[in-house]
Amino acid sequence: MSIHSFTDLEVWKKARVLRKSISTLTQKFPADEKFKLTDQIKRSSRSITANIAEGYGRFHYQENIQFCRVARGSITETLDHLIVAFDEGYIDEQTLKNYESQLTEVKKILNGYIKYLAKAKQLPLDTDETPPNN
């Protein structure tokens, strides 16, 4: 498969599914959390896909890697917000575990993408291997 856009990246696709699911989940949170936990968890989950996209658009390996690292931080932040939701009784333990599993999967794929970018950054310019953005 050829990569022509950030939307072709497997990590972005998985993070998008997660983001949409979290948006649906937060609709069940109490109204008084609208500008608190609900807003925070939506922002952190949106930050994952947004930073992957922004990094891709930079067209420089090191900048792309840096934005992917920010996305990785947003994965961890999202998990923390989900733990708060569990602690407050807004979600049950199984829901927390399911989201934790999805976040771990996205993080693994993202780590693989970061490793790929770091390796591609080291390739000589005359190589046959063309990375998705250079």
UniProtKB/TrEMBL annotation:
* CDD domains reported in the protein's UniProt record: 23S_rRNA_IVP_like
Write down the InterPro entries for this protein, in alphabetical order.
Answer: 23S_rRNA-intervening_sequence, 23S_rRNA_IVS_sf
The domain of life for this entry's organism is Bacteria
Pfam families from the xrefs?
23S_rRNA_IVP
Signal peptide residue numbers: none
What protein name applies here?
A: Four helix bundle protein
